[in-house]
Amino acid sequence: MSQQPALAATTVVLTSKKPVSGRTVVVLMFVMGILATAFLYIYWTLHLTPFMPLQEAIVREFPGSAPRVNGGRKKIHKQTPMILRIAIKSETDPTSEAPADQQAMLHLRQRIAAMTRELQPLPGIEQLEVHVYKLLKEDQIRKQAWQLLMTDGAQWQPLDETGTTATVQKPTAAAAPGNSK
Predict the structure, then answer these.
(1) In sequence order, what are the beta bridge partners of 131?
(2) CA distance 133 to 136
(3) β-sheet bridge partners, residue 158
(4) Residue 155 and residue 133: Cα distance in Å, rounded?
(5) Residue-level pLDDT at 90
């Protein structure tokens, strides 16, 4: 017969503290919720306060536009340009090719640029981006974005879906039909 090794008898002494009552847990949860809400309120208030005068001016000029104004640098450590972004709802289709719609979009962009220069929500704004959208149905949206460098004589440039300046490439003479070698 084989002998099994003797198991050493160990004594574990558990020191238990008084358990936390359910009432204390509920109170602590409420305190945590209130602190989190206060933190978010203070953060958003401090973050959005510089843009409120411009946002209110846009609402006065374009009622029902629900503008959202935000600004800053994309990557501070890489010295990217200071950008002011404005998203605005419009009743005019921003993607329309109709001359009246294009004129309305140009007027909207020019007025926003003028208000931005007048109110200066951020010091040193280098670029202004205007994102215009029109809600068609619950699941459909038409949108277009433009960028303006805040220098004298700068022209509005359309932005593509990635946020980069869209460029139109014209066909070269070699690519034109009928120019085969």
Answers:
(1) 87, 145
(2) 10
(3) 146
(4) 21
(5) 93
CA distance 155 to 14: 76
Give me the residue label for tokens 């670029």: 127
**Does the predicted TM-score (pTM) go above 0.85?**
no
Instruction: Flag residues of the chain having pLDDT under 50.
Output: 168-176, 178-181
pLDDT of res. 78: 76
5 CA to centre of own chain:
69
Residue carrying structure tokens 């139109």: 168
CATH 3.30.70, applies to 48-159? yes
- Find, among 79, 152, 150, the residue nearest to 121 by Cα: 150
Q: How far apart are CA 135 and CA 150, in angstroms?
A: 29
CA distance 34 to 28: 10
